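Batch manifest, entry 17 of 40.
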Amino acid sequence: MIKSKYAIVLIGLSVILSNCQQNKNNENKDTLIQTEMDTLAINEKKIREYFAEYINIPIPEEGDDGIEYYMSEEDLKIVIPIIYNNLKRNEFQFISDEKFQDKLKNIFGITLNTESQQLINHTDFISYVVPPSYDPSRTVKDIASVEFLYHNIFFIKKYNFISPLPMIEDFVKIDNNKIINITPLNIIHQNKYLFNDSNASLTWLMNNDSQFLESLVNDFGYVKDQKLLKWMIERTEFRYNYHTNEATNLEEFLQLLVHRDCQGKLRINQETLDFMKENTNTDVLGTFENYVKQIHNFINITAFFGTDNALKCNYSFQEQAMIYAHLLYWGEKICDNEYFSSARDYFMDSFYQGCKETKQKYDEEFERNNYYNLPDFEKYWNKAVDNYNRIYGGSQ
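Output type: structure tokens
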């Protein structure tokens, strides 16, 4: 009985100490933010000068000349405490440093210590210069010159949230000569979706900020959220004209399938292919929306019709081979299902036949990469070679 009383006392003390520590952490953060709000008051002169001189001058797009005002690190420092306060007011749950690191790695493919030409590390935040502004030929100085443009994103280290371009007029307004702090709703919902796993915020973003969600998939290759992935795939049906052999959204469809990480390395979005496989209609000759036909049409038009498409222009032959290998393998695996056996010639048979003078080049590239460690790929490919040789006698 005495031991039980001691146990109750110890549990009670643990709860009290835990609450005290949590309160202390909150007080420390609130004290810090109050200090920054005081800093905001000190920066009032700069804010008023900005509104007086630059409010009607557009922020530059990359390559623009003649713009008098460029955003800077100082602008972001002004809006950080404003965003913090408004996130807190909207019941955003701030996460630990460890969880923030995990989220950045899972969603954006980086850590706070990642070294990349696309990342610019500051004391309080990291700037991610988002493609397509990224160019492997740029120097670090060139990247820095486009740091504060519309399409980039900023990771705030102190409080573990993100922000798009910190345009002061989006966060501060002057009413009757009084400075009022505001935060756009899209920033609130971006952070609640990414770091609080809010389905309500995801729905809000789908209806009000589709550009941000598209960037998550297209720029960062974030395809692990099945609800987001389904939404993106349904919006990006491959549109192919059989009469002209042209596609109107080839690049957008390609971005569903692959992405480059911040090191410039090509990554296959395997989750996209898995989703398409699991949700493929059983009528292979049916509607145009069928994923089997979409993947086949994509391979067909990029490989055999013209040399100026997004795949041929933006990817090396080695990268093209890697992409085709995964798509062809996806198709062959689909055709192992009896419902799709009649589509077998859509993939490796059709591809090998159409390769013409590049047959040996693909043979060598696939073998050099050990067939990308895809089970049975070599078997499917050799069967396509044998079928071709049997029909055409090894030449065409």
